[in-house]
Amino acid sequence: MSQSFKLFRLQQIDSELDKGKARLKKIAVLLEDKHKERLSQERLEIVKEERGEAAKQLRRAEQEVQAQRVKIDRSETALYGGKVVNPKELQDLQHESEALKRYLSTLEDLQLEAMLTLDDAEMNYLEASKKNTAVIAEVALQKDNLNDEKTNLLQDIERQESERQAAASNLIPQDIRIYESLRQQKNGIAVARVIERTCAACGSTLSAATFSSAQVPTKITRCDTCGRILYVG
């Protein structure tokens, strides 16, 4: 088994480890993300406040209607109670009673509008509450799935780290140092396969001498163009 193959295999393991660890970080961010629940809860709070305000407006309208009816009752009691006999005063009371009744009609219209507004607010609240419940359930399911994925990833990473330790134990320390340095410099790709005398990483055609050297199992050869370790396999 050539040194370049051992390094290539180590790179495969490291790539899987990098991918798994990157996904773990992403999962951690997703598990902490409260954005969707917060938006849903904020919407629910808004419509709840709107419902409360609509209920207040209706109570106010009902009180005003009730107060106006009391005024009308008093006015008609004065008008028809027999205590007032002066024609001018009776006429004034008649006009007052009619004005009070006209305004009662206006107040009743406002009361009806307030009732309809409250009905709409109740519907909006029920809809928002239903959606909020659905969002909570959806997020809980997503987080359950993420936690399951996290558990599986941690198991995979533990296994891969054991594989890496075994793979690295068969390598020369100096070769590992070169490999680690290249991985940092070359975005994780330290070992490049040779396909038809071409470096698969940078696309450069290898010279005859480089290609011949890359086939020697006891040494590592690097691409003349990109500097990566070459693996002929």
Fold and architecture overview:
By secondary structure, the chain is mainly alpha-helical. It is 77% helix and 4% strand. The chain contains five helices and three strands, in the order H-H-H-H-E-E-H-E. It has helices at 3-32, 35-80, 87-169, 173-185, 208-214, and strands at residues 191-195, 198-199, 229-231. Strands 2-1-3 form a three-stranded mixed beta sheet. Helix 1 (3-32) runs antiparallel to helix 3 (87-169) and helix 2 (35-80) runs antiparallel to helix 3. The chain is rod-shaped, with a radius of gyration of 41 Å.
Secondary structure layout plus pairing:
Blueprint: H1 3-32, H2 35-80, H3 87-169, H4 173-185, E1 191-195, E2 198-199, H5 208-214, E3 229-231
Give the biggest sheet.
3 strands, mixed
Q: Tell me the strand order in the biggest sheet.
A: 2-1-3
CATH architecture of the largest domain: Orthogonal Bundle
Q: Summarize model confidence as the mean pLDDT.
A: 96
Instruction: Provide the CATH topology of the largest domain.
Output: Helix Hairpins
Instruction: List the helices and strands in order.
Output: HHHHEEHE
Low-confidence stretches: none
Question: What brief labels describe this structure?
Answer:
3-stranded mixed sheet, Helix Hairpins, 2 domains, mainly alpha
Summed up, what is this model?
This protein is mainly alpha-helical and 233 residues long.
